[in-house]
Amino acid sequence: MKAFEWVSPASVEEAVGLLKSAPTSREMDEAARPLAGGQDLLTTMKDYLTRPVRVVNLKSIRGLDKIEGDGRKGLRVGALVTLAQVEEHAVIRRDFPGLAEAAHSVATQQIRNLGTVGGNLCQRPRCWYYRLEEAVCIKKGGSECFAATGENKYNAILGGGPSWIVHPSDLAPMLVALGASVNVAGADGRRTILLEKFFTLPNEGSVRRENVLQNDEIITEVSVPASPFAARSTYLKFKERESLDFALSSVAAAVELGADKRVRQARLVLGGVAPVPWRVPKAEEFLKGKTLDAEALAGAARLALEGAEPLSKNAYKVPLTQTLVRRALAKAGGVSA
Amino acid sequence: MAAAFKECDAVVEAEYRSPILHHSSLETHGNVVDYRGGEEATVYASTQGTFTIPGDAAHELGLKESAVRAVVEHMGGGFGSKFGIGVEGMLACQLSKQAKAPVHLMLTRKDEFLLAGNRSGSWQKFKAGVRRDGTLVALHATQYQLGGLGDGSQAGQPYIYAAANAYRERISVHTHEDASRAMRAPGHPQASFAIESLMDELAYKIGIDPVEFRKKNLKDAVYHRQLDRGAREIGWERRNKTPGGGTGPLRRGMGCGIGTWGGGGNDECKVDVTVARDGSVVVAVGTQDLGTGTRTYTRAIVAEELGLGMKDVAERIGDSRLGQANSSGGSTTAASLAPSVKDAAVKARLAVAERLSPLLGGAKPEEITFTNAAVSGGGKTLSWKQACAALPAAGVTGHGVWVSSLADRGVHGVCFAEVEVDVETGHVKPIKMVHVQDIGLPLNRLADESQMNGGMIQSLGMALWEGRVMDAKLGLQLNAGFGDYKLPGALEMPEFVPLIDDEDKREAVIGVGEPSIIPAVGAVVNAVYNACGVRVRELPITPDKILMGLMSERRGA
Ligand SMILES: Cc1cc2nc3c(=O)[nH]c(=O)nc-3n(C[C@H](O)[C@H](O)[C@H](O)COP(=O)(O)OP(=O)(O)OC[C@H]3O[C@@H](n4cnc5c(N)ncnc54)[C@H](O)[C@@H]3O)c2cc1C
Questions:
Q1: Contact in structure between A250 and A106 (CB atoms under 8 Å)
Q2: How high is the pLDDT of residue B557?
Q3: Residues B253 and B147 grouped into a single domain
Q4: Is B339 inside any structural domain?
Q5: How many CB pairs under 8 A join A and B?
Q6: How far is the CA of A37 from the centre of ligand 1 (A)?
Q7: What's the whole-number mean pLDDT along residues B6-12?
Q8: CB A252 within 8 A of CB A320
Q9: Which residues sit with their C-beta closer than 6 Å to ligand 1?
Q10: CB contact (8 A) between residue A241 and residue B465
């Protein structure tokens, strides 16, 4: 690990000031970095993927670890709230069940005890080539995405190019499905960003980043609006190894059903298959007014994967994700798949 | 061969592949080398061969072998990868020598994946033919072993089976990857996986029960009884009669596999059992315990012989200053060490008895009994404390050597597995595994069962998750860490039923560590086929392979 300066600010303002003032190049991998639970940042530092000159410890800031609100008022989750707190929170489990499921699906209990909501959304991708110090891929300033023609079993089938990473966060697809926003503080002020607009595809903005944050910006809070579908939300994640694994594919689904059991609104976001949480509006639109029978589920599954362009070793993700779409919608709607 | 194939009613041609695997010892390779100049050095080593260290270290340090002491009180796993001091130990020696200070050098986890050995991969191509009655008539095998810079290893085909006409060739393919090393039953899981897959394919092709088909081609009655027992235990009659049959997304299936191993002991261990005047008992030998319970049985044999409890005996092991012992390789530790411990304990007992004879009415030493911490003879009984008080000031010591009649070699081993496959996701959930193993005289049933459980777990890993992944262009390993090299975890565990085959009446010690990992891979692979109807011929059987297999089947149908 490269030597770095360690600072523990007492306020958000101080933190973003310290991020801004660090002597650094503009490249994110060299810039000062905020540290939350450290479950990802430390591994990227040990492997020299990130070489921050300064590490700004967010855990010394008070007040970023609160969960407030409920399904009627909307939910506000501080950036330092741990994944374990999210999965165990009674109100979240009742009013936003999909969010509790998404948090529970992450890693292991030990990692969830330390990993935070803000860190989870900003964690770096798990692509084998990105994580391998010796492989200078396009995300690390090289010219090539080695996964495009290499070992791409876990890579993207949607939205890929010029990098084919998949976004690793399990919270992200669910929060996008729930219409969440993030409150962001930077040295030049605060802004609120709809989570759906927060993540960036490799061909939008810098291929070396996964979201719109500036180097001096941090997430302070995630806010999830009250919605008629939050109570019928679910997160289905497929892991190759149940004990500990990232998603080979996942589906965040939420539906609002009318008294006639027909879908009034649906939200469907895919995880583990694209460089960003992949919302599928066509499938959502298709479901409107339908009862969740086998035909509707199959139709939504087909539309959800429309446009998928598998690489040499990940075509399996298409049928796998279709299964998950059907199962997630059925679970959210309380019917059998 | 060509003529033999003409006689066959059914022929299968298939190629089976298994990737390079990693030992994945939780403790990486490494040592503390303490050489501060002068005549002597001490090396604290993570090794499965205490006595492989002094010579290697002495060579680096420029000392005499006898001047280097190796200490291996505890070590965190080896699985065949930890013999000799290794490049990491050589570096630590050089550094310690220059710094005149102790040097602690352990490999990082990534180093461990890249340069600390591996189980060689295998590509095995077969053409095999059978008659309608199930007789294996002809088998042609080309076996490639992928050991990187090393030779790799693979048991020769048709492994435990006999074919009237058999031809095999074995080829080592060299690459720039690090050299393979021994790994728990070198070459056997690879060979067993391939031949058991092939036998399954042949059995299904001619429509014979896979268990009956195996029996037809195995003469050894031990295999027959183990197959019968395993089949009974798992409920073989419940298996999917048509592979992939059933309704709904979750399909269950069963399969079996078979293995064999040598083991056996050698005259390599010198053990001292010393009984002191205060009643304390110490058994001392330089051997190492790589997690297989060596400490426990070393102590237990002595305690049993002297009629004492486990807490009354102390063992000192893992030190090259103590009596010579062999390295732990080939499942030969117990069969070499236990008879020597027994011999030392018997000698110590007789030495104590000789001293006590006058106090016990002149009873003959061999007729004096040692039970429940008391010594009896000639109608009298002394407590252990009283008895030992009569010993000379220096106590007495029994020097044990290997007793060949107490060790044996050659075991079988059969495994049955039941799995559940989600045919809409390709997920495989192991349900139950039954392993039947002959091991001669079990020294410690709990530890033996634990070895069998561990073997089943490691086999599961090989069958379903593990494998080195290299990038073909960059020549780099992509999954050199426990995040990406997926060892099975707690949630992957099925119900394990380890069964010691007590019909093996040999009153002799045989190692159980290695045979435990051999037959289960084939069992799991065949269970997956029985469950979902997809024959995956390349390990590990990950969901992508099952899903793609199911899709191409549907396209074919
Ligand atoms: C073995 C393992 C398995 C894992 N499995 C999963 C999984 O299955 N699913 C999943 O979703 N995740 C998984 N993770 C990732 C883990 O969930 C995240 O690492 C964790 O949630 C990150 O939280 P943290 O607080 O530890 O972040 P940190 O490691 O502290 O930070 C992660 C990144 O986010 C930045 N950051 C942190 N907080 C903020 C903030 N408030 N504003 C802006 N940037 C910030 C940091 O600078 C850093 O770049 C796994 C991690 C490991 C080590």
A1: no
A2: 66
A3: yes
A4: yes
A5: 70
A6: 7
A7: 97
A8: no
A9: A 33-41, 43, 58, 79, 83, 106-107, 111, 114-116, 118-120, 122-123, 168-170, 218-219, 246; B 483
A10: yes
Q: A76 alpha carbon to ligand 1 midpoint, in Å? A: 19
At residue A336 the predicted structure's pLDDT band, cuts being 50, 70 and 90, is: confident
Query: What is the mean predicted confidence (pLDDT) over A237-255?
Result: 98
Q: What proportion of chain B, given as a percentage, has pLDDT over 70?
A: 100
Pick the residue from chain A with its C-alpha nearest to B484: A128
Q: What is the pLDDT of residues A185-225, one digit of tens each?
A: 999 999 999 999 999 999 998 999 999 999 999 999 999 99
| B46-59: average pLDDT | 98
Q: Are residue B99 and residue B149 in the same domain, yes or no?
A: no
User: A24 pLDDT exceeds 80?
Assistant: no
Taking CB atoms within 8 Å and a gap of at least 24, the contacts of B451-454 are B451/B292, B451/B512, B451/B513, B451/B516, B452/B496, B452/B498, B452/B499, B452/B500, B452/B512, B452/B516, B453/B496, B453/B498, B454/B516, B454/B517
Helix axes A294-304, A317-333, angle to 10 degrees: 140
| pLDDT the model gives residue A26 | 75
Q: Which of B113, B109, B182, B184 is nearest to B147 (CA)?
A: B182
**How far is ligand 1, taken at its centre, from the CA of residue A168, in Å?**
9
Q: Note whether residue B472 is domain-resident.
A: yes
Residue A106 DSSP class: S
Q: What distance in angstroms lies between residue A114's CA and the mean position of ligand 1's atoms?
A: 9
pLDDT interval class at A238 (50, 70, 90): very high
CATH code of residue B49: 3.30.365.10
Which residue range forms the structural domain that includes residue B280?
A: 271-406
pLDDT of B528 reads 98
Chain A neighbors of B484, CB-CB under 8 A? 128, 131
Question: Any chain B CB within 8 A of the CB of A323?
Answer: yes
CA separation for the pair B525, B200 (Å, rounded): 10
Q: Taking CB atoms and an 8 Å limit, are B471 and A134 in contact across chains?
A: no
Chain A hits for B534, Cβ within 8 Å:
none
List the CATH number of the domain containing A244: 3.30.390.50
Task: Encode pLDDT of B408-432 as tens digits.
Answer: 999 999 999 999 999 999 999 999 9
With 0-12 / 13-18 / 19 or more C-beta atoms within 10 angstroms meaning exposed / middle / buried, residue A10 is exposed
Taking an 8 Å cut-off on Cβ atoms, the answer to whether B425 and A132 are in contact is no
Q: Which structural domain range is residue A255 located in?
A: 230-333
Examine the pLDDT at A25 and tell me if it is beyond 70: no
> From A108, which residue of chain B is nearest by alpha-carbon distance?
B489
Ligand 1, atom 4, residue with closest C-alpha:
A107
Residue A275's nearest CA partner among A103, A144, A131, A139 is A139
Q: What is the mean pLDDT of residues A314-328?
A: 98
- CB-CB neighbors (< 8 A) of A134 in chain B: 474, 476
Chain B contact present for A70, CB below 8 A: no
The alpha-carbon gap from A87 to the nearest alpha carbon of chain B, in Å, equals 19
The one-letter code for the residue type at A205 is G
Question: Is the domain of B142 the same as that of B259?
Answer: yes
Q: Residue A28: pLDDT band by 50, 70, 90 thresholds?
A: confident
Tell me whether residue A219 is in a domain.
no
Instruction: Name the residue with the closest Cα to ligand 1, atom 9.
Output: A106
Give the residue from B349, B374, B406 where a domain finishes. Answer: B406
- Burial class, B165, CB count within 10 angstroms (exposed 0-12 / middle 13-18 / buried 19+): middle
User: How many structural domains compose chain B?
Assistant: 3
Instruction: Give me the pLDDT at residue B556, please.
Output: 79
What total of structural domains would you count in chain A? 1
* Mean pLDDT score across all residues of chain B: 97
